[in-house]
Amino acid sequence: MEVYRSSAALSTPPQPSRLAFRMSETAHLAAETTSRIFRDLGDPQALNSARDGAWRAPLWNALEEAGLTRAWVPEALGGADASLADGFEVLRVAGSFAAAVPLAETLLAGWLLAQAGLEVPGGPLTAAPARSGEGLALDGENRVSGRARAVPFARDAAQVALIARRDGHALVALVERARCGLEPGESQAGEPSDTLIFESVPALAAAEAPPGLDEERLLAMGAAVRAAQMSGALEAILERTAAYAAERVAFGRPIAKFQAVQHGLARLASETAAALAAAGSAADALDRADAAAEALLLEVAGAKIRAGEAAGAGAAIAHQVHGAIGFSAEHVLHRYTQRLWAWRDDFGGEAEWAVRLGRILASRGADALWPLIASR
After folding, report:
1. Which of 161, 180, 211 is the last residue in one of the domains?
2. Total structural domains within the chain
3. Residue 207: helix, strand or coil by DSSP?
4. pLDDT digits 0-9 by tens, 87-112
5. CATH number of residue 272's parent domain
Protein backbone atom coordinates (compact mmCIF):
# COMPACT_ATOMS: atom_id res chain seq x y z
CA MET A 1 0.00 0.00 0.00
CA GLU A 2 1.49 3.34 -1.03
CA VAL A 3 1.77 6.23 1.41
CA TYR A 4 -0.17 9.29 0.31
CA ARG A 5 1.81 12.52 0.64
CA SER A 6 -0.43 15.25 1.95
CA SER A 7 -0.07 18.84 0.83
CA ALA A 8 -0.10 19.72 4.53
CA ALA A 9 2.98 19.36 6.71
CA LEU A 10 3.66 15.74 7.60
CA SER A 11 5.81 16.49 10.63
CA THR A 12 2.82 16.19 12.95
CA PRO A 13 0.88 13.05 12.02
CA PRO A 14 -2.67 12.73 13.35
CA GLN A 15 -2.85 11.30 16.83
CA PRO A 16 -4.78 8.05 17.29
CA SER A 17 -8.20 8.45 18.82
CA ARG A 18 -8.34 8.10 22.58
CA LEU A 19 -11.06 5.52 22.00
CA ALA A 20 -9.07 3.50 19.45
CA PHE A 21 -8.05 -0.01 20.36
CA ARG A 22 -4.70 -1.63 19.70
CA MET A 23 -3.66 -1.65 16.08
CA SER A 24 -0.73 -3.12 14.22
CA GLU A 25 1.88 -0.88 12.63
CA THR A 26 0.41 -1.49 9.17
CA ALA A 27 -3.07 -0.66 10.44
CA HIS A 28 -1.76 2.62 11.85
CA LEU A 29 -0.18 3.38 8.48
CA ALA A 30 -3.40 2.58 6.63
CA ALA A 31 -5.44 4.75 9.01
CA GLU A 32 -2.96 7.63 8.78
CA THR A 33 -2.86 7.50 4.98
CA THR A 34 -6.66 7.42 4.77
CA SER A 35 -6.97 10.33 7.20
CA ARG A 36 -4.52 12.51 5.26
CA ILE A 37 -6.32 11.93 1.97
CA PHE A 38 -9.73 12.75 3.40
CA ARG A 39 -8.41 15.80 5.28
CA ASP A 40 -6.97 17.16 2.05
CA LEU A 41 -9.73 16.23 -0.37
CA GLY A 42 -12.78 15.13 1.62
CA ASP A 43 -13.16 17.52 4.53
CA PRO A 44 -16.82 17.26 5.65
CA GLN A 45 -17.32 21.02 5.98
CA ALA A 46 -15.85 21.68 2.54
CA LEU A 47 -17.97 18.96 0.95
CA ASN A 48 -21.05 20.25 2.74
CA SER A 49 -20.51 23.65 1.14
CA ALA A 50 -19.71 22.30 -2.32
CA ARG A 51 -22.22 23.23 -4.99
CA ASP A 52 -21.49 20.22 -7.19
CA GLY A 53 -19.72 16.89 -7.17
CA ALA A 54 -16.43 18.12 -8.65
CA TRP A 55 -14.63 17.00 -5.49
CA ARG A 56 -15.39 13.31 -6.06
CA ALA A 57 -12.90 12.59 -8.87
CA PRO A 58 -9.80 14.01 -7.09
CA LEU A 59 -10.72 12.20 -3.87
CA TRP A 60 -11.35 8.90 -5.62
CA ASN A 61 -8.15 9.18 -7.67
CA ALA A 62 -6.10 9.76 -4.51
CA LEU A 63 -7.69 6.76 -2.80
CA GLU A 64 -6.93 4.58 -5.84
CA GLU A 65 -3.36 5.82 -6.18
CA ALA A 66 -2.70 5.01 -2.53
CA GLY A 67 -3.99 1.46 -3.06
CA LEU A 68 -6.80 1.88 -0.52
CA THR A 69 -9.57 0.83 -2.91
CA ARG A 70 -7.79 -2.50 -3.47
CA ALA A 71 -6.58 -3.04 0.08
CA TRP A 72 -8.17 -6.50 0.37
CA VAL A 73 -6.88 -7.72 -3.00
CA PRO A 74 -3.73 -9.91 -3.00
CA GLU A 75 -0.62 -8.55 -4.68
CA ALA A 76 -0.77 -11.38 -7.21
CA LEU A 77 -4.11 -9.98 -8.40
CA GLY A 78 -2.84 -6.41 -8.53
CA GLY A 79 -3.91 -5.30 -5.07
CA ALA A 80 -2.31 -3.85 -1.96
CA ASP A 81 -2.36 -7.21 -0.12
CA ALA A 82 -3.42 -5.61 3.16
CA SER A 83 -4.90 -7.67 5.97
CA LEU A 84 -8.59 -7.57 6.78
CA ALA A 85 -7.73 -5.69 9.99
CA ASP A 86 -5.93 -2.99 7.98
CA GLY A 87 -8.90 -2.63 5.66
CA PHE A 88 -11.31 -2.25 8.56
CA GLU A 89 -9.14 0.57 9.92
CA VAL A 90 -9.41 2.28 6.54
CA LEU A 91 -13.19 1.95 6.76
CA ARG A 92 -13.32 3.28 10.33
CA VAL A 93 -11.38 6.37 9.33
CA ALA A 94 -13.41 6.82 6.15
CA GLY A 95 -16.58 6.66 8.24
CA SER A 96 -15.29 9.54 10.37
CA PHE A 97 -15.38 11.79 7.27
CA ALA A 98 -18.80 10.69 5.94
CA ALA A 99 -17.87 11.30 2.30
CA ALA A 100 -20.25 9.94 -0.33
CA VAL A 101 -17.78 7.78 -2.28
CA PRO A 102 -18.05 3.99 -2.78
CA LEU A 103 -14.82 3.11 -0.97
CA ALA A 104 -16.47 0.54 1.31
CA GLU A 105 -18.40 -1.01 -1.57
CA THR A 106 -15.27 -1.27 -3.73
CA LEU A 107 -13.31 -2.87 -0.89
CA LEU A 108 -16.10 -5.39 -0.34
CA ALA A 109 -16.38 -6.23 -4.04
CA GLY A 110 -12.60 -6.61 -4.31
CA TRP A 111 -12.57 -8.95 -1.33
CA LEU A 112 -15.34 -11.07 -2.89
CA LEU A 113 -13.60 -11.39 -6.24
CA ALA A 114 -10.24 -12.12 -4.63
CA GLN A 115 -11.75 -14.97 -2.60
CA ALA A 116 -12.46 -16.76 -5.87
CA GLY A 117 -9.13 -15.84 -7.43
CA LEU A 118 -10.68 -13.45 -9.94
CA GLU A 119 -8.84 -10.35 -11.15
CA VAL A 120 -10.18 -7.14 -9.68
CA PRO A 121 -10.71 -4.28 -12.15
CA GLY A 122 -9.97 -0.67 -11.38
CA GLY A 123 -12.60 1.95 -10.76
CA PRO A 124 -15.58 2.00 -8.41
CA LEU A 125 -17.25 -1.36 -7.74
CA THR A 126 -20.16 -2.65 -5.72
CA ALA A 127 -21.34 -6.07 -4.51
CA ALA A 128 -24.67 -7.92 -4.71
CA PRO A 129 -26.88 -9.20 -3.26
CA ALA A 130 -27.03 -6.82 -0.33
CA ARG A 131 -30.25 -8.12 1.23
CA SER A 132 -30.96 -11.38 3.02
CA GLY A 133 -33.04 -13.95 1.15
CA GLU A 134 -32.24 -12.61 -2.30
CA GLY A 135 -30.50 -14.84 -4.82
CA LEU A 136 -29.10 -14.69 -8.33
CA ALA A 137 -28.77 -17.53 -10.84
CA LEU A 138 -25.89 -18.29 -13.21
CA ASP A 139 -26.64 -20.52 -16.19
CA GLY A 140 -24.30 -22.83 -18.08
CA GLU A 141 -23.24 -19.99 -20.39
CA ASN A 142 -22.29 -17.79 -17.44
CA ARG A 143 -25.28 -15.48 -17.76
CA VAL A 144 -26.73 -13.95 -14.62
CA SER A 145 -30.46 -13.64 -13.95
CA GLY A 146 -32.43 -12.27 -11.01
CA ARG A 147 -32.90 -9.09 -8.99
CA ALA A 148 -30.91 -7.49 -6.19
CA ARG A 149 -32.48 -4.71 -4.15
CA ALA A 150 -30.84 -1.77 -2.39
CA VAL A 151 -27.39 -2.29 -3.87
CA PRO A 152 -25.29 0.61 -2.55
CA PHE A 153 -23.76 2.95 -5.15
CA ALA A 154 -24.90 0.65 -7.96
CA ARG A 155 -25.38 3.44 -10.50
CA ASP A 156 -21.85 4.76 -9.82
CA ALA A 157 -20.14 1.37 -10.19
CA ALA A 158 -18.45 0.31 -13.40
CA GLN A 159 -18.75 -3.40 -12.49
CA VAL A 160 -20.68 -5.48 -10.00
CA ALA A 161 -19.21 -8.40 -8.08
CA LEU A 162 -21.83 -10.92 -7.05
CA ILE A 163 -22.61 -14.38 -5.77
CA ALA A 164 -24.90 -16.49 -7.94
CA ARG A 165 -26.10 -20.10 -7.86
CA ARG A 166 -25.75 -22.81 -10.48
CA ASP A 167 -27.25 -26.20 -9.63
CA GLY A 168 -27.16 -25.26 -5.97
CA HIS A 169 -23.47 -24.32 -5.99
CA ALA A 170 -22.27 -20.82 -5.15
CA LEU A 171 -20.15 -19.01 -7.73
CA VAL A 172 -18.53 -15.58 -7.72
CA ALA A 173 -19.02 -13.53 -10.88
CA LEU A 174 -18.26 -10.08 -12.25
CA VAL A 175 -20.61 -8.23 -14.61
CA GLU A 176 -20.73 -4.83 -16.26
CA ARG A 177 -23.17 -2.60 -14.44
CA ALA A 178 -24.23 -0.98 -17.72
CA ARG A 179 -25.57 -4.35 -18.93
CA CYS A 180 -27.98 -4.52 -15.99
CA GLY A 181 -31.35 -2.91 -15.64
CA LEU A 182 -31.49 -0.32 -12.86
CA GLU A 183 -34.34 1.02 -10.75
CA PRO A 184 -32.93 4.06 -8.95
CA GLY A 185 -33.35 4.42 -5.23
CA GLU A 186 -31.82 6.38 -2.38
CA SER A 187 -30.74 5.61 1.15
CA GLN A 188 -31.67 7.87 4.06
CA ALA A 189 -28.39 9.68 3.41
CA GLY A 190 -29.46 10.48 -0.15
CA GLU A 191 -26.85 8.11 -1.57
CA PRO A 192 -27.58 5.62 -4.41
CA SER A 193 -29.31 2.47 -3.20
CA ASP A 194 -30.56 0.93 -6.41
CA THR A 195 -32.29 -2.23 -7.54
CA LEU A 196 -30.31 -4.13 -10.17
CA ILE A 197 -32.14 -6.30 -12.68
CA PHE A 198 -30.17 -9.11 -14.30
CA GLU A 199 -31.74 -10.50 -17.46
CA SER A 200 -29.25 -13.05 -18.80
CA VAL A 201 -26.40 -10.60 -18.25
CA PRO A 202 -23.11 -12.16 -19.46
CA ALA A 203 -20.44 -12.45 -16.78
CA LEU A 204 -17.05 -10.97 -17.53
CA ALA A 205 -15.56 -13.65 -15.28
CA ALA A 206 -16.88 -16.38 -13.01
CA ALA A 207 -15.36 -18.96 -10.67
CA GLU A 208 -16.47 -21.48 -8.09
CA ALA A 209 -16.74 -19.93 -4.64
CA PRO A 210 -14.36 -21.44 -2.08
CA PRO A 211 -15.88 -23.47 0.80
CA GLY A 212 -17.68 -21.25 3.30
CA LEU A 213 -18.25 -18.36 0.88
CA ASP A 214 -21.92 -17.87 0.07
CA GLU A 215 -24.61 -15.20 0.24
CA GLU A 216 -24.66 -15.33 4.05
CA ARG A 217 -20.90 -14.82 4.30
CA LEU A 218 -21.11 -11.85 1.93
CA LEU A 219 -23.92 -10.42 4.04
CA ALA A 220 -21.84 -10.90 7.20
CA MET A 221 -18.83 -9.20 5.66
CA GLY A 222 -21.01 -6.30 4.54
CA ALA A 223 -22.46 -5.99 8.04
CA ALA A 224 -18.95 -5.85 9.54
CA VAL A 225 -18.01 -3.18 7.01
CA ARG A 226 -20.97 -1.03 8.01
CA ALA A 227 -20.21 -1.55 11.73
CA ALA A 228 -16.68 -0.22 11.16
CA GLN A 229 -18.02 2.81 9.29
CA MET A 230 -20.57 3.52 12.02
CA SER A 231 -17.93 3.37 14.74
CA GLY A 232 -15.82 5.92 12.83
CA ALA A 233 -18.78 8.24 12.28
CA LEU A 234 -19.63 8.07 15.99
CA GLU A 235 -16.06 9.03 16.87
CA ALA A 236 -16.36 12.12 14.68
CA ILE A 237 -19.78 13.00 16.12
CA LEU A 238 -18.45 12.71 19.67
CA GLU A 239 -15.50 14.99 18.92
CA ARG A 240 -17.64 17.59 17.15
CA THR A 241 -20.40 17.52 19.77
CA ALA A 242 -17.98 17.90 22.69
CA ALA A 243 -16.28 20.83 20.92
CA TYR A 244 -19.61 22.50 20.20
CA ALA A 245 -20.75 22.12 23.80
CA ALA A 246 -17.53 23.74 25.00
CA GLU A 247 -17.98 26.71 22.64
CA ARG A 248 -21.73 27.30 22.80
CA VAL A 249 -22.60 29.75 25.56
CA ALA A 250 -26.01 29.94 27.24
CA PHE A 251 -26.93 31.90 30.36
CA GLY A 252 -23.40 33.19 30.58
CA ARG A 253 -21.50 29.89 30.47
CA PRO A 254 -20.67 27.08 28.04
CA ILE A 255 -23.45 24.52 27.79
CA ALA A 256 -20.85 21.83 28.56
CA LYS A 257 -21.03 23.07 32.16
CA PHE A 258 -24.67 22.04 32.47
CA GLN A 259 -25.22 18.67 34.11
CA ALA A 260 -27.78 17.48 31.57
CA VAL A 261 -25.39 18.17 28.70
CA GLN A 262 -22.53 16.49 30.55
CA HIS A 263 -24.71 13.44 31.06
CA GLY A 264 -25.55 13.36 27.35
CA LEU A 265 -21.89 13.65 26.35
CA ALA A 266 -20.97 10.84 28.75
CA ARG A 267 -23.63 8.62 27.19
CA LEU A 268 -22.42 9.53 23.70
CA ALA A 269 -18.86 8.60 24.68
CA SER A 270 -19.99 5.26 26.10
CA GLU A 271 -22.04 4.44 22.99
CA THR A 272 -19.05 5.32 20.79
CA ALA A 273 -16.73 3.14 22.86
CA ALA A 274 -19.19 0.24 22.66
CA ALA A 275 -19.46 0.55 18.87
CA LEU A 276 -15.68 0.69 18.50
CA ALA A 277 -15.23 -2.37 20.70
CA ALA A 278 -17.90 -4.39 18.90
CA ALA A 279 -16.71 -3.44 15.41
CA GLY A 280 -13.09 -4.08 16.37
CA SER A 281 -13.93 -7.49 17.79
CA ALA A 282 -15.72 -8.48 14.59
CA ALA A 283 -12.77 -7.26 12.50
CA ASP A 284 -10.35 -9.30 14.62
CA ALA A 285 -12.49 -12.42 14.24
CA LEU A 286 -12.69 -12.00 10.47
CA ASP A 287 -8.95 -11.41 10.31
CA ARG A 288 -8.25 -14.73 12.02
CA ALA A 289 -8.21 -17.42 9.37
CA ASP A 290 -8.82 -20.14 11.95
CA ALA A 291 -12.03 -18.63 13.33
CA ALA A 292 -15.00 -20.98 13.09
CA ALA A 293 -17.96 -19.96 10.95
CA GLU A 294 -20.27 -19.84 13.97
CA ALA A 295 -17.82 -17.68 15.92
CA LEU A 296 -17.61 -15.27 13.00
CA LEU A 297 -21.38 -15.03 12.81
CA LEU A 298 -21.63 -14.36 16.54
CA GLU A 299 -19.07 -11.56 16.35
CA VAL A 300 -20.58 -9.96 13.27
CA ALA A 301 -24.12 -10.18 14.64
CA GLY A 302 -23.01 -8.59 17.90
CA ALA A 303 -21.14 -5.83 16.06
CA LYS A 304 -23.99 -4.93 13.71
CA ILE A 305 -26.53 -4.95 16.54
CA ARG A 306 -24.43 -2.94 19.00
CA ALA A 307 -23.09 -0.47 16.46
CA GLY A 308 -26.61 0.06 15.13
CA GLU A 309 -27.97 0.71 18.61
CA ALA A 310 -25.11 3.10 19.30
CA ALA A 311 -25.80 4.90 16.02
CA GLY A 312 -29.42 5.50 16.97
CA ALA A 313 -28.68 6.67 20.50
CA GLY A 314 -25.59 8.65 19.49
CA ALA A 315 -27.32 10.54 16.70
CA ALA A 316 -30.18 11.50 19.04
CA ILE A 317 -27.79 12.79 21.72
CA ALA A 318 -25.72 14.78 19.23
CA HIS A 319 -28.81 16.49 17.83
CA GLN A 320 -30.09 17.24 21.33
CA VAL A 321 -26.84 18.99 22.20
CA HIS A 322 -26.64 20.90 18.92
CA GLY A 323 -30.30 21.88 18.88
CA ALA A 324 -31.88 23.16 15.67
CA ILE A 325 -28.57 24.10 14.05
CA GLY A 326 -27.62 20.42 13.73
CA PHE A 327 -30.53 19.84 11.36
CA SER A 328 -29.67 22.74 9.06
CA ALA A 329 -28.19 22.14 5.62
CA GLU A 330 -25.20 24.32 6.49
CA HIS A 331 -24.12 22.18 9.45
CA VAL A 332 -22.14 18.97 8.92
CA LEU A 333 -23.83 16.99 11.71
CA HIS A 334 -26.64 15.82 9.47
CA ARG A 335 -24.08 14.33 7.03
CA TYR A 336 -23.08 11.93 9.80
CA THR A 337 -26.45 11.15 11.31
CA GLN A 338 -28.12 10.49 7.97
CA ARG A 339 -25.37 8.03 7.08
CA LEU A 340 -25.61 6.36 10.46
CA TRP A 341 -29.32 5.82 9.92
CA ALA A 342 -28.69 4.44 6.42
CA TRP A 343 -25.82 2.18 7.49
CA ARG A 344 -27.97 0.66 10.24
CA ASP A 345 -30.25 -0.81 7.55
CA ASP A 346 -27.59 -1.93 5.06
CA PHE A 347 -26.71 -5.65 5.06
CA GLY A 348 -29.37 -6.33 7.69
CA GLY A 349 -30.65 -4.19 10.54
CA GLU A 350 -30.45 -4.90 14.26
CA ALA A 351 -33.70 -6.87 14.35
CA GLU A 352 -32.61 -9.19 11.55
CA TRP A 353 -29.22 -9.87 13.12
CA ALA A 354 -30.80 -10.29 16.56
CA VAL A 355 -33.00 -13.06 15.15
CA ARG A 356 -29.96 -14.81 13.71
CA LEU A 357 -28.06 -14.45 16.95
CA GLY A 358 -31.02 -15.79 18.92
CA ARG A 359 -31.31 -18.83 16.67
CA ILE A 360 -27.64 -19.65 17.16
CA LEU A 361 -27.86 -19.34 20.92
CA ALA A 362 -31.10 -21.33 21.11
CA SER A 363 -29.65 -24.13 19.00
CA ARG A 364 -26.77 -24.59 21.43
CA GLY A 365 -29.05 -25.05 24.45
CA ALA A 366 -29.21 -23.31 27.83
CA ASP A 367 -26.16 -25.06 29.29
CA ALA A 368 -23.92 -23.72 26.54
CA LEU A 369 -25.04 -20.10 26.84
CA TRP A 370 -22.80 -18.91 29.67
CA PRO A 371 -19.62 -20.67 28.44
CA LEU A 372 -20.19 -19.07 25.04
CA ILE A 373 -20.63 -15.59 26.50
CA ALA A 374 -17.61 -15.97 28.78
CA SER A 375 -15.42 -17.08 25.88
CA ARG A 376 -15.94 -13.95 23.80
Report:
1. 211
2. 3
3. strand
4. 999 999 999 999 999 999 999 999 99
5. 1.20.140.10
